[in-house]
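Notes from hallway chat w/ T.B., transcribed later so I don't forget. T.B. wanted the structure written out for a chain they're using in a teaching module, and asked if we could keep both sequence and structure tokens in one place. Agreed to drop them here.
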Amino acid sequence: MGKENGRLGRGQIANMNICYQMYSLDYFFTSTKRLGLSSIELWGAPPHLDQRFISNGELYRLKRRVRGEGLRIVCYTPFQNGRVINLADRDKSFREFSIGWLRRSLEIASCLETDKMLVTAGRGLLDEPASEAFERAADSLGRLAKTAGRYGITLLLEPLREDESNLVCSLGEAAHMLCRVSDPALKAMADTSPMYAQGENFTGYRRTLRDDFAHVHLVDGDPDGHLALGDGNLPLKKYLEELIELGYNGTMTLELIADAYFRDPEAPLRRSLRFLSPYLEED
């Protein structure tokens, strides 16, 4: 069933600082408020947040700053490029480093008082059985889920495009991983770019995952990429109608990533919000 008014809530839409890499975090906060948004997904990478050096004291000050701006962090997304952080790596030392990195990410999320953190399964080598890398990823995610549970944080497993991972790229692979790990602290999310690449939709996510479907990255593509809504050719109107019909009340982040956007990130975000306006509740 959809919402009674047939709209999504504006508070469900989150801005993300990954598009603001040429600006300060202060500018990102101010820009988010100018856009009329109150939710953010915080990308944990320089120049905004460097996990290697930031102290817990600095994190608590950041948390107070976010609250003072009238914003809330709906998800923490740590840097986890597959060549640098890889939960499925065959090298045990590298894998343990990756687990340690993401355990620190969970501590950061706890300091910032957000209850969700994005995670990916990593990738295996192409000259080894994918099943072996999948099992390494499952073991790593299981260990992280136990830590997340102690913090009261939900890990959001994101399927990636096949040029980014060879382990969890589809709804079926995400469901398999959740079944394999079998920990309530691990749930799954959908990004419209890999979802489209797999020929999937939100109805399938909800039917398969039920309450384990917990977050969305809402982007356009041509067909790949992370474009502003309306800048590509994905069937976004159909996707949004599905979310309304499903009564989806979770968060949806505008994860825009394109060189053309970095100098003026507000412009593509405003276009995205105009695209969304027929589907959002009125203020």
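Follow-up for T.B.: The two ends are 23 Å apart (CA to CA). Might be a good example for the class.
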